[in-house]
Amino acid sequence: MIAENVAFGIIAAAMALGAIGVVRTKNIVHAALYLVVVLAGGAAQFILLGQEFVAWVQVLVYIGAVIVLFLFGIMLTRAPMHPADSLDNNLRWPAAVTALFLVGILSGLLVHTFHGQKLNDLEPVRTNQITNSIFTTYIVPFEVVGVLLLGALIGAVLLARKD
After folding, report:
1. What pTM does this model have?
2. Of 67, 40, 68, 66, which Cα lies nearest the Cα of 55?
3. Please, what's the b/e burial string for 114-149 (b: 16 or more CB within 10 A of its CB; e: otherwise)?
4. At residue 61, what are phi and psi to the nearest 5 degrees?
5. Quick count: other Cβ atoms within 10 Å of Cβ 15?
6. Over 80: is that where the pLDDT of 80 sits?
7. Is pLDDT at 91 greater than 80 in this prediction?
8. Within a domain: residue 150?
């Protein structure tokens, strides 16, 4: 149990540093690569939970497809790699207040929902339960995301055309 906690801490720290790198870097390609670190950390967290199927879906769909789509969009739109203008502004304090407000709301919701309950982690969710929920309950959002990604790819190609 201690090794799992140490592994969780290391992965969570890598994810936090990657998330900070996403928003702090000025190079858009580096931001996409930092996002790969964050998503890979999410997959590693699923491995720690014993959910290998969800971890591989995370790797294949998000790292394998979405990040490649981001990189294609970056290349096709010829986004500047090093912007000349500073990306900094004076909205740090409102952003910090908003972030603290969001943390308070989410913490309150979690305490309200799980107050005094112990989660049963001895019964892992099986793959057939996940696939049944994806392809029955959540089929419409699943298809909408696919159409949205296709539209983003088509839009990037249209923006990159030299007409």
Report:
1. 0.63
2. 40
3. eeeeeeeeeeeeeeeeeeeeeeeeeeeeeeeeeeee
4. -80, -50
5. 18
6. no
7. yes
8. yes
